[in-house]
Write a structure and sequence with these properties.
alpha/beta, TIM Barrel, eight-stranded parallel barrel, two-stranded antiparallel sheet, 18 helices, globular
């Protein structure tokens, strides 16, 4: 996809705002994605040698092979958002084989899904595209609904099906987060010992994060700290929602409240209101990019192609490692989903879309 095409999709004003922005924190301070990322970053770490091989298998697959960027198809919404609600727009994805086919036809680096989805087709596909087993989930069948990530699979099951990586979610800020941190940290350690890479969905969950008419679950300062906790338990890649606001710590400390800690220079020196600076704050909190930041694509809507391209541009220019987009791709006919995934990848393949 040419830069002119990307500009057309974004619109002239949006393209000008995103493609020509100069970031607050210099790119020179970041560890940026590249074809040598495993050699340059992870080969120096405490990760066992088989983990390096697993990471490289992800970086070497699909249309983004050997660029250091990744495009991952995640489909765990059958649990996280209920199967019928997720797959009613395109019922073929009740069949796990079609999920894997979409990832392959869409040129993805890997497919991330549940024990059941990947396990039922493992012998046919585990050697054709890297598998990422998501081992914990929040189910929506308990009444009333609650928000707690619980273990659905073991790390041994991931290894036995041929997965090269495992994924998990932690709801930072929730009442259950302390237990989840311990569970996931222990599971990630086992995964590394078994030669698999680790990916953490670093999500926030607390009703108190909605205050003053603003939802701070996507605030750059809060999500950035969640990322920092994630890399602390040795997540190799962090999945995070694209930031939409900032200043959560200040808002949550109004009226004499005491929550967390921040510093005025977080907002004056490390970020601004620009979406690329907000996303860069997330990258900064991933050890200055030593752990890759992949942003999620979000829910499906009316302008999915434009929104996906915009998110990819923000992530790439912020110094991120790629996108993990599910509902925008699978809640459509497969050929349209493939087109959307390819459009995301085209942003990362376009050398004129540079890191800000």
């Amino acid at each position: 996809m040419s830069l002119d095409k990307i500009t057309t999709i974004l619109g002239d004003a949006e393209a000008e705002n995103l493609l020509n922005h100069k970031a607050k924190v210099s790119r020179e301070q970041l560890n940026l994605p590249g074809s040598d990322f495993v050699d340059r970053i992870f080969a120096l770490s405490d990760r066992p040698t088989p983990v390096l091989r697993s990471l490289q298998s992800i970086f070497s697959h699909g249309r983004l092979a050997d660029t250091g960027y990744v495009s991952i198809l995640p489909v765990d919404q059958g649990i996280e958002h209920s199967a019928a609600a997720s797959f009613a727009p395109n019922p073929i994805y009740f069949d796990p084989e079609n999920i894997v086919k979409l990832a392959i036809d869409g040129g993805c680096n890997a497919v991330a899904s549940t024990l059941g989805v990947l396990g039922i087709v493992a012998r046919k596909y585990a050697h054709k595209i890297p598998f990422i087993l998501k081992f914990n989930h929040n189910e929506l069948l308990t009444y009333p609904n609650k928000f707690d990530q619980v273990m659905f699979a073991s790390i041994e099951q991931a290894r036995d099906m041929g997965a090269v990586a495992v994924g998990a979610t932690i709801y930072f800020g929730s009442d259950e987060s302390t237990r989840q941190i311990v569970e996931v940290s222990e599971a990630f350690n086992i995964a590394h010992e078994m030669g698999m890479a680790t990916i953490l969905w670093c999500y926030l969950r607390n009703s108190a994060f909605k205050t003053g008419g603003v939802d701070y679950h996507t605030a750059a300062d809060l999500t950035g700290q969640a990322n920092h906790l994630g890399v602390t338990i040795e997540a190799d890649i962090i999945k995070q929602k694209l930031p939409e606001c900032n200043g959560a710590y200040n808002a949550l400390n109004e009226g004499g409240a005491s929550y967390g800690k921040t510093h005025k220079r977080v907002y004056s020196d490390l970020s601004s209101d620009h979406p690329i600076d907000l996303a860069r704050l997330q990258v900064i909190n991933c050890y200055m990019g030593r752990a890759g930041l992949i942003n999620s694509g979000g829910a499906s809507g009316e302008n999915d192609l434009a929104q996906a391209v915009k998110t990819a541009v923000i992530n790439k220019r912020a110094g991120g490692m790629g996108l993990i987009s599910g509902r925008k791709a699978f809640q459509k006919p497969m050929d349209v989903g493939v087109e959307l995934l390819n459009a995301i990848q085209d942003v990362y393949l376009n050398e004129e879309v540079t890191v800000a």
